[in-house]
Design brief:
Blueprint (H helix, E strand, L loop, with lengths): L14 E5 L4 H12 L3 E6 L10 E5 L5 H15 L4 E3 L17 H24 L1
Parallel strand pairs: 1-2, 1-4, 2-3
Helix pairs in contact: 2-3
């Protein structure tokens, strides 16, 4: 049994940011937010494969402080606020071979990209 839901305008007037919003789960979340009436900003290092005029794209590497500051500045200067934040960013470039193959640099890089960077730049929105 399938139930139809009407999500039109439940988020009308809300400003949403989805990190890693150009593909996969982030893209699906961003599309759902648009369907619900939100103004949606997506960010990733690379532009989406297909441009979507219903979303504002900001190219940035959020694992770096300057990329995070760029996103915070652009969102706040363009929209004045942020209501919804979806931290979907993540990944790893560690080598294959399991635990024993990982260097200290692998651990630091993965923690920076997946934990420390999102925590830091999320705080930047809270302080504005």
């Amino acid at each position: 049994m399938t139930q139809d839901f009407n999500f039109n305008n439940e988020l009308s007037g809300k400003i949403a940011l989805v990190t890693g919003g150009t593909k996969g789960a982030g893209k699906a979340i961003a599309e759902r937010l648009v369907q619900a009436g939100a103004t949606v900003i997506i960010t990733a290092r690379n532009a989406p494969e297909q441009e979507n005029s219903s979303m504002h794209f900001i190219a940035a590497d959020l694992s770096k402080a300057d990329g995070a500051q760029q996103v915070v500045s652009e969102v706040l200067s363009t929209y004045g606020r942020l209501d919804i934040l979806v931290n979907n960013l993540g990944g790893s470039s560690t080598p294959a071979g399991g635990f024993a193959a990982l260097s200290d640099e692998d651990w630091e890089s993965t923690l920076q990209a997946n934990l420390l960077a999102p925590f830091g730049w999320t705080g930047a929105f809270c302080r504005k």
